[in-house]
What we know:
heterodimer; A: two-stranded antiparallel ribbon
Amino acid sequence: MLSTTAFRLRTSHLAHVIGIALFAAFTALAARITIPLPFTPVPITLQVMAVLLAGLVLGPRAGAASQAVYLASIMAGLPLDAQGLGMAALAGPTGGYLIGFVPAAFITGWLAENLSATRAGRFLAALAGAAVIYAAGVAWLAPAVGGLHKAWLLGVAPFILVDLSKAMIAAALTESGQLLFRQ
Amino acid sequence: MEDFEFLRNVTIGQYFTGNSIVHRIDPRTKITILMILAIVNSFTTSYTGNAIVLSVCIAYVIASGISFRFILSGVKPALPIIIIYALMQLLFFGEAYEPYGLASEVYFQWGVIAISNGSLQLVIVTLMRFLQIFFLVSLLTATTTTTDIAHGVEGMLKPFQRIGVPSHEISLIGTIALRFVPIFAEQLEIIMKAQASRGADFGGGGVFQFVKTARQMVSLIVPLFVDAFRRAEDLILAMDARCYIGGKGRTHLTRFHLGNLDFTIMGANLALAIAVLVLRNAFPA
């Protein structure tokens, strides 16, 4: 399948550049793979997994850079968010989640490097990253829905189980990507 | 079939060849104008100010020769969510917003629902702002090739290279990321159709069958990732085989020149922006 170890690149930085672009694009596409829920304005998206994987696969700096590229293209007006609104999505009630992507990727990557290089270590790092996304999301959502408690019920509680499994899948998928992008 | 379609209706990013004045100006000029008008857009809250900026945007669309029908068709996928937001703002924020330049007036009140001229202004101005940005970004990508935009961004970031901004890498990453998005979307469609042909049950889940929708997603994630990694690997190998070594010492086949036309248009937009920003307190409403 992946023949990654067979070649050596002229510049290792090429792999970083492509990796950042890949995960920026992946986050953008993952926005469209959503499961709308009837009881809350926040949908389940695959984006959280894309963010966690960016941190795990690319490491803290490049992972955060990939999310910054995604965020910048939304700020430039491109309709790459879940609803296709462009810049208006950042101002809307779910804008906090998007802003949380950058620190989340960084923290996931940093913890994964500094905890242990096992699947369990990556899983814990991914959980911490998901927590960062939700902290940013709830802080933003709270004024729009009226209070922190309500924001917790609408914006975090329904997703805890789903995100445990997302973090697990991300931790499991990491190795194949790391081979490619960390030469 | 629309369950299989991602990003089909996205009009932003599609390029149209042409020789209009909007096509001919330098990409750097277009990006600068976009930035100037975006700043004006975010500081203008009055009807008059937004009407001026919106009419300027419409004038650009007309000058470019791109049909309004095409540009407005890009708003369609976002329309339901826009309508929901607009209704929420109109109905529930009536008491919270002071209208700009008008005496506060409540038109209708019933329980928590209150429509005032403040919330009406909020909705109309928000829609006008959304349309302005949407017109400008659509127009930029419709009249400029991706390569030109990338080179334009690179050129504009070049002065910051001294303080360590990797201008070449930023524009390269942006270009590749934006090229990847439609490729992945297409790939996702292919995977969905492949899984469906093997008997997977897609679509028709609806909002209340989220468990079913979640189960559908699982059969997509892993193939999609494997394919994405493979594509990235191919691209890395291809670029490496062509001796790509980064931005240092790299030259371009075509060079951009800022002509009189560019300076005139940039100056006119800057003057307009300053006028709208300075006079915004003088606008009646």
